[in-house]
Design brief:
The protein has helices spanning 4-11, 15-23, 42-56, 61-72, 79-113, 125-132, 134-155; strands at residues 2-3, 31-32, 38-40. The protein is mostly helical and 159 residues long. The chain has a 3-stranded antiparallel sheet with strand order 1-3-2. One of its GO terms (molecular function) is DNA binding.
């Protein structure tokens, strides 16, 4: 049996994290010492690791509760239920990846459009594009990008 601090160390969390999971009804603390300290078993440690890994994968508290209930009572649940929860999370992750890829492309275009010199930022293409917002910024960045490269080519023409 472990006290809360010992359990926290073994699972690499804080005692407050364990208390939070208890409040969220993901962990129990049925056993107490005579002094009122919570005691936890190896099953509690396993459950805590389950919760931590599910959290790392980005599952919501509600999804973790559902997965735990399936784990606790597997005879009354199917793998299809677990898979459905995982598929929903996977869809969320894939949507977020698409958003991040779009964001990356936009940032790359902003970066490419900027000459990056130590001159005044009065005509900085990044600042101009951010000021205009997403609706027109990318079209203007393409224009500014072409203008900067033209200007750069003009400056570097050998005499």
């Amino acid at each position: 049996m472990y006290r809360i601090g010992e359990l926290a160390k073994l699972a690499d969390v804080t005692p407050d994290t364990i208390r939070y999971y208890e409040k969220q009804q993901m962990m129990d603390h049925d056993i107490r010492t005579e002094g009122g300290f919570r005691l936890y078993s190896d099953n509690d440690l396993q459950r805590l690791r389950f919760i931590r890994y599910a959290r790392q994968l980005g599952f919501t508290t509600e999804a973790i509760r559902e997965l735990l209930s399936i784990r606790i009572d597997p005879e009354h649940h199917t793998c299809q239920e677990s898979k459905g929860i995982v598929q929903a999370r996977l869809s969320e992750v894939e949507a977020r990846i698409k958003e991040l890829q779009t964001m990356r492309r936009s940032l790359q275009r902003l970066n490419d459009a900027c000459c990056g010199t130590a001159h005044s930022s009065v005509y900085c293409s990044i600042l101009e594009a951010l000021e205009q917002g997403p609706a027109t910024a990318m079209a203007d960045v393409d224009f500014l990008n072409a203008r900067i490269y033209t200007r750069a080519e003009f400056i570097h023409i050998p005499e």
